[in-house]
Amino acid sequence: MRKPKLRELKEAVTALIKGPYTSKFPAVPPTVPEHFRGAPTYEPDECVGCGACGEVCPAGAITITDMVSEDTGEMVRHIERNWGQCIFCSQCYVYCITGKGIYLDEDFEKSTMDRGDFLDAHDKELLLCERCGAVISAKEHIHWIADQVGELSYANPTLMLARHGELNQVDRDEGVDEGKRLERDNYMRILCPNCRAAYILTDEWGES
Ligand code: SF4
Ligand code: SF4
User: Fold this and answer.
1) Of 3, 81, 160, 201, which residue is most buried, by most CB within 10 angstroms?
2) Hey, whose CA ends up nearest to atom 6 of ligand 1?
3) Quick one: 67 and 89 in the same domain?
4) Which ligand 1 atom is the nearest neighbour of the CA of 102?
């Protein structure tokens, strides 16, 4: 048997005096460094349902589906997360528009015997175009945008009505039949970008 090298002998003596280099995890939780990327934590009250996290997640751990809710029958944005697929890259946190809807905490120990423990989901109510029924975005997302742009939201009837409608400050007849000519009074409607453009073109140039 070859004699150990002096360097290895020195390491062995140092370890005997100072104790092992390895941590005592899982018996003793380790102290993680600053900016450590642990498991994502979702905050439903801070999320506005924009869907950005689902767009940027490289692992497909977050899926966004606009659908009819089985519970309410309303159109909702269904945000489903499968932490079992997460690679702790933190892109969802970096691109979360509120900066608080999802963040990576210091917990990285997520092992479980039941994969179902990795799943969770939330629904966000959707705002629909009053002319064609197309999805505009989650209501909370539109309200958040209105808050961000402040008084500039008065330049956009969709933003203004969505925000004021929530406050019950607007009393109006909702809903326009698809295909009906966009009269001037329909300017003050919640419209998707396509119907808004169609209204403006019709108002400016007449029906094609
Ligand atoms: S940390 Fe990365 S992989 Fe995990 S949910 Fe967020 S974006 Fe997806
Ligand atoms: S990016 Fe943030 S606000 Fe948007 S859906 Fe994800 S968690 Fe919610």
Assistant:
1) 81
2) 92
3) yes
4) 6
Same domain, 134 and 122: no
pLDDT, tens digit, 9 for 90 and up, residues 63-96: 999 999 988 999 999 999 999 999 999 999 999 9
Per-residue pLDDT of 33-71, as tens digits, reads 888 898 899 999 999 999 999 999 999 999 999 999 988
Given this model, what pLDDT does residue 31 score? 86
Co-location of 178 and 148 in the same domain:
yes
Any domain includes 54:
yes
Protein residue closest via CA to atom 6 of ligand 2: 53
pLDDT band per the 50, 70, 90 thresholds, residue 2? low
| The domain boundary residue, chosen from 91, 126, 161 | 126
Question: Residues lining ligand 2, judged by CB closer than 6 Å?
Answer: 47-53, 79, 96-98, 101-102
Structural domain contains residue 133: yes
Containing domain of residue 186, as a range? 129-208
Are residues 89 and 108 located together in one domain of the fold?
yes
**Is residue 62 in contact with ligand 1, taking CB distance under 6 Å?**
yes
At what angle are helices 157-166 and 139-149 packed, to 10 degrees?
110
- What is the pTM for the complete model shown? 0.81
